[in-house]
Amino acid sequence: MFGLTKNDLKSIQDIVDNQSDYLDNNYFTTSEGQVKTLRDVSFSANHSVRYYSQLNNKIDTMTKMAISQGLHSCFLTMTLDGYFRDLLHGDYTRFDSLSDYDKKIALRSTPTSEKLGEVRQKIEARKTLTIKDLYNILNHQTKRFQESYAFKKLKKDNANYMYIRTVEPHKDGVPHFHVMLYIPFEYIEQFKKDFIKSYPAPQNRRIKDSKKFIQDFKIDNQELESFQTEIKDTTAYVMKYILKSFMDVKNQKEIDYIQAWYIKHRIMRCVTSKKLVPQWVYQKAYAFESDWFHLTDLLNDKSNHCEWSKEDNYFYFIDNHTKRELIYQYGKLQIIYEDRVIKEIGEVKEKNISVKVYDKTPTQWIKKSLPVPTYADNILIGHHINNVGFCKLSKKKPYQMKDYQLKQYFENLDIRTVNPTHYAHTTNIMIERGLITGNKVNLADSYEECEVF
Hints:
By secondary structure, the protein is α+β, with helices and mostly antiparallel strands.
């Protein structure tokens, strides 16, 4: 079943049970004095109901956001050519019988990078492929689709789009993709053409309710079986496929074959575009702002100010319509209205750097000595401690520095090597304190393209 044996299922069940026991039997005490288990704070897909609840929230928010922006929903199915199934058993008969042109197309649709497993090199060496190799072939073809003319034209026109991608196994374990794509209606025909070019398998270009294949990519006004454009309830449609990959954590004690398939091959259940406020921002803001749609709406409204930095564990939202500010700084979350703190939770915490000493000499025999300060360009960078060595100075975040220290730190940043988001965040703090003049930078502009669940 799905390419797994009973022994595979039992082995994976044992792994899940061991993880579950570990989460249930390890406790910690919160700052409020509550005793909780690791399962209580877990977001594991196999152990926590919170993972599915948050994913469901995100899918619902994305579909509502797409509808509010007037985007049209398209449901895509991506499958592989049949001969790839043979390569799972090392059988290259069908592959070798291809014409030179078809063989060239087939190799072009397989990845060569180390990140995706160098599948093309395996095929050229006549090696047996794995399920993960076939999954990486589909990933490679999807990457080509996202680099096609349709997407480039969309971005050039500053048009918006979103997507939700799931993966599902056939009965023999071979994966295929389902994608809910939200794009402006006028771009659909170009997307169909590039879809066919990116996924060369014949079943990806079959006309709906017909055995005929599209010739020369003349597909205007044609509905493809793998590219449907008449989807009514998009949330329910895509959730139908996502639900198959999850076990009922509350009521189900043993996993089934399809759930074991994702765990064995380490395959992600769902991938989405990053068109919402980042998940880590939403999780930290949840105590005061539990509406993911509203946070994203603030981001899309250019009259507001939204910035964040995961590296600095910081975000800052200003709603200029309500004069309300939402600030998170390294553990402390605040809501401010007209310069007054309305709500506040947590406290600013600085990450302590602990120095481990692996010297076996008894501590009572060690001659104590004072730490020797070490400078570089007249700036203290750490101390040299006897029997320990050099210890770097604990680094403060820019917002924790005093004005003189912040100014020295900012002047020594190398713009060629420093993280652009960190540099922009430090610049904003300098402007706020009046140490330099200029306009603030919106950190959300450097936001990356895709997010993984």
